[in-house]
Design a protein that fits this description.
Helix 7 (about 180-185) links the parallel strand 5 (about 165) and strand 6 (about 190-195). This protein has a single domain (about 5-224), classed as Rossmann fold. It has helices at about 25, 30-35, 35-50, 55-65, 80-85, 150-160, 180-185, 210-224; strands at about 75, 90, 100, 135, 165, 190-195, 205-210. It has about 220 residues and is α/β, with parallel strands linked by helices. It contains eight helices and seven strands; from the N terminus they run H-H-H-H-E-H-E-E-E-H-E-H-E-E-H.
Length: about 220
């Protein structure tokens, strides 16, 4: 959904300072335990990349659609581009870059923005304002459960949907990748918008091989 805003998808090769790191190794409790300074620094770099990016035509099309119809958005993305385009998001199922929490007591708090130097790869996590423990990124890591409330809202929207659009996902990360099958089981139509075949293409009633920034504006224009 955000690739056309200049944000690499999670499995794209990273560039520059981070080209020698495997993102999945940093997005895990084990990576945090090994080197929390490196993990915090990597997430601060990702947040800076998002802040320098803008919503694309796909984000803006969903905002237009949401203003004229009942449209719920549940996303795996940890950026805030839907909101910056003007949409309401019912669930950030994999968390948010902009909602860090304490790794010890769990309190959510937004630290002061940090000035990043691309020559420095490690940044010590700031202390929790409540207990002093190290703050951790707000994204859900491999091996961690999804936030219960967010996941529950995503499931509820699918169970009550007439139409489910699956936009840009690889379809390999569960349980989110199970939502198209859930939609089919309750009688909803499933449409996949993705330039390539994915692991969930066989769950779609219709497959449109295009990108979010091209397909969604055309779709919304034809509807409203």
């Amino acid at each position: 959904m955000s690739a056309e805003s200049g944000i690499p998808t999670f499995r794209d090769a990273q560039t520059g300072l981070w080209s020698t790191f495997e993102p999945a190794d940093l997005a895990s409790p084990e990576g945090w335990a090994r080197d929390s300074d490196l993990v915090w620094g990597w997430y601060q770099w990702r947040a800076k990349l998002v802040q320098q990016s803008e919503p694309n035509a796909g984000h803006r099309a969903l905002t237009t659609w949401q203003q004229s119809a009942h449209l719920d958005i549940a996303t795996q993305n940890v950026d805030d581009l839907h909101e910056r385009a003007g949409s309401t998001v019912v669930a950030h199922v994999h968390g948010s870059l902009f909602d860090p929490r304490c790794s010890e007591c769990g309190v959510h708090s937004q630290p002061e923005p940090e000035e990043l130097d691309e020559a420095v790869d490690r940044i010590p996590p700031p202390p929790c304002p409540e207990c002093g423990g190290p703050m951790r990124p707000g994204a859900v890591w491999f091996g961690e459960p999804l936030p219960e409330a967010e996941w529950g809202r995503a499931v509820s929207t699918v169970e009550n949907a007439d139409l489910v659009l699956v936009v840009g996902t690889s379809g390999v990360v569960f349980p989110f990748a199970g939502l198209p099958a859930m939609a089919r089981s309750v009688g909803a139509k499933v449409v996949e918008i993705n330039p390539v075949e994915t692991d969930i293409s066989d769950m779609a009633d219709h497959r449109w091989r295009t990108t979010a920034a091209i397909g969604l504006p055309a779709l919304v224009h034809s509807l409203i």
